[in-house]
Amino acid sequence: MLQTVIGSLFERSCTVRGDLAGVPGVMRTAASWDTGPTLLEEHLCYYVLRGEALAEAAGRTWTLMANSLIVCPPHTSFRVRAGGRPPHVLRCRFVIAQGSTVLSCWSAPVVVEAAQAVLPLLQGLVDELVSPRPPSEHEARVRAFLVLLLTGCARPAQARDEAGRLGTAQQRRLTALIDQDEELRLTPRDLARHVGLSLDYFTRCFRRTWGEAPRTYLVRSRILAASRRLAQGGASIQDIARSCGCADVNLFARQFRLIIGTTPSRWRAQRGRYGPV
């Protein structure tokens, strides 16, 4: 089913559209947050950046920890609400259609734990949905991000039983630790110590589990934290860079552009244009 939909994205007869459900960028929820039972014709993506969410769909319930992603297919009843720690989520909706027929990538919701590898793709799609590009260029980029995102969602499930990976309990302990790191000062050695492994062995397991080095993951987490602070306004870019442990503002700007896809100043201006997140 997924391969058929991805193939359709390369056909002219296929149409795509998406929106951010009225909440551009990252949505910070309250303890009372609850979507209630909902049924849509679109695919719906929720990526938990921080905190914890509870998702219900197709008769199943999932606890979504930080760095977990759920994709609900069209015409599937679902409900998402805040868990023990109200989550920060990145979300969007999209439709893939062939004529009047809405195509579904999966027959049931797909949940991906430790989904950091697809986060830049989802962020790219979210940013493209509010981009002022010409319609033809905009649609081509949305199609490209959807192909990469949907393919990426399928890959982690195929590698879950690979030897030498961190266990689910270890992954949750690490994401909870990073989620609580308000000062953004954790190091790879701190992470290894937290799960009782030597640094070298931990680094190898981390790479096999999440597809990148612990230091790269930590940098990505800090840049995402910086993007949220930039959207809030107030502090200067220099102060936010220093709060992320980066005294060199130029280096911070390069890392930000690599991960978010635009400069810190443009990100702040864009979020200001589309309202609070």
Question: Can you walk through the features of this model?
Answer:
The chain has 277 residues and is α+β, with helices and mostly antiparallel strands. The protein folds into two domains: 157 residues, Sandwich (Jelly Rolls), CATH 2.60.120; 106 residues, Orthogonal Bundle (Arc Repressor Mutant, subunit A). The protein is 44% helix and 19% strand. It contains ten helices and ten strands. Strands 1, 2, 3, 6, 8, 9 and 10 form a seven-stranded antiparallel β-sheet that branches. The chain has a three-stranded antiparallel β-sheet with strand order 5-4-7, with no helix packed on it. Helix 7 crosses helix 9. The chain is globular, with a radius of gyration of 19 Å.
Key features of this structure:
2 domains; disordered C terminus; Jelly Rolls; 19% strand; single chain; three-stranded antiparallel beta sheet; 277 residues
Number of DSSP helical runs:
10
**Named CATH architecture of the largest domain:** Sandwich
- Please state the structural category: alpha+beta
The helical percent reads 40-55%
Q: What are the segments in which pLDDT stays under 50 over at least 5 consecutive residues?
A: 156-161, 273-277
| CATH H-level homologous superfamily name of the largest domain | Jelly Rolls
